[in-house]
Design a protein that fits this description.
With about 350 residues, the protein is mainly α. It contains 14 helices and two strands; from the N terminus they run ββαααααααααααααα. A two-stranded antiparallel ribbon has the order 1-2. A hairpin with a 5-residue loop joins strand 1 and strand 2. Helix 5 packs parallel to helix 8.
Length: about 350
């Protein structure tokens, strides 16, 4: 019985000959981080560095080096390298989160005082850009309509293209489609706007409208939807397809009932990434939608406004009132994208295949 209660962990021989299992305490990473911040602040103060970014970078380097040295001393070089890799992951994560938090905090602090019921339900009709008051309703309505139309155009085309490339695509045609999708992924937004301007407006004779802007936004959205959907479909195990086909289910029904529901979460996320990209575009909207201070609920006739265009125009005026409206519109734009993502995640979770009993 005494043998069964013995510690089964591998023992490490110390130089003195005794066996022990050295481990860093759980609070060690936090202590090293605090010490790195203090030492980084001391070095920055001694060197006369006033930038907080420099202080953070110095502290991060000290943290990684200190983690390796201390862990290697206590647990050995192998565990030291492991802790260094973990520390690098945490440092990169923090460096990525800090700009996001700074952006969110700045936008909220400067825009929250402007956003209220009046701001969301009134336009700039009858007001100069230098006047106080006014709202963002006309721009919010234009953004909702333009993004909705672009999504309705781009999502089915992108989804069906991805299904073709993964499930059916073979040979030169599939390679050509993949090549052009890759090319379209990197085109500037102004090029999409110029293309629609030269065809829809100049060649076909249509005027400024929200629909013209939505056409340009759909061009920017399609390759993102294709690429993200293609990768999600590739992650679906082939065993699911083979099991469905073995039961005599046609391939189109297998795709519709097995493949797509399995990948619906990733597909929805990819679509929302594409929506988030086009929601903040200004150049094609400036060319094709033109902008207006009036409320225009018809996206197929007449100029409209949008949130990114409204932010650009108000900030360009440069007065205190217009800059406040610009920050308020930026906050509304961020909230709009966040709400869309939350709704999309809810739909994806609702439609995802249920596991378990």
């Amino acid at each position: 019985m005494s043998h069964t209660l013995q510690d089964k962990r591998p023992a490490v021989a110390e130089p003195g000959g005794s066996l022990s299992h050295a481990r860093m305490p759980r609070w060690a990473p936090l202590a090293i981080a605090v010490g790195s911040l203090a030492l980084g602040w001391l070095i920055s103060l001694t060197a006369g560095l006033d930038s907080k970014i420099q202080w953070c970078l110095i502290s991060a380097l000290i943290f990684v080096a200190g983690t390796y040295l201390i862990t290697a001393k206590v647990e050995g070089s192998r565990q030291g390298k492991n802790h260094v890799a973990t520390s690098l992951v945490w440092v990169c994560f923090i460096l990525a989160v800090i700009p996001l938090l700074s952006l969110a905090w700045t936008t909220i602090s400067k825009g929250a005082s402007v956003v209220d019921g009046y701001f969301l339900t009134h336009s700039m009709s009858g007001l100069l850009d230098t006047d106080k008051g006014g709202g963002v309703y006309h721009a919010l309505l234009g953004t909702i309509e333009q993004v909705a139309i672009a999504t309705l155009i781009a999502t089915p085309i992108g989804l069906l293209t991805a299904v073709y490339l993964v499930e059916y695509g073979r040979g030169k045609l599939a390679r050509a489609v993949t090549f052009f999708v890759d090319v379209m992924t990197g085109i500037p937004s102004i090029v999409a706007g110029l293309f629609v301007l030269s065809t829809w407006n100049l060649m076909l004779g249509f005027g400024f409208s929200g629909f013209a802007g939505a056409l340009a936004l759909s061009i920017l959205m399609m390759p993102v939807v294709v690429r993200s959907t293609e990768e999600m479909l590739k992650l679906v195990p082939n065993e699911l397809r083979e099991a469905s086909l073995a039961l005599g289910v046609p391939q189109w029904r297998t795709i519709l009932k097995v493949v797509l529901p399995t990948a619906i979460g990733g597909i929805t996320t990819g679509v929302m990434l594409a929506v988030a990209r086009i929601t903040g575009e200004t150049a094609p909207i400036l060319l094709l939608v033109f902008g207006t201070k009036l409320i225009n609920p018809n996206p197929f006739d007449g100029a409209q406004s949008s949130l990114p265009l409204y932010v650009y125009q108000q900030y360009a005026v440069g007065t205190d009132a217009s800059v406040e409206r610009a920050w308020g519109a930026a906050l509304v734009l961020i909230a709009f994208v966040m709400i869309l993502n939350l709704v999309a995640r809810g739909i994806a979770r609702w439609k995802a295949p249920k596991t378990g009993r």
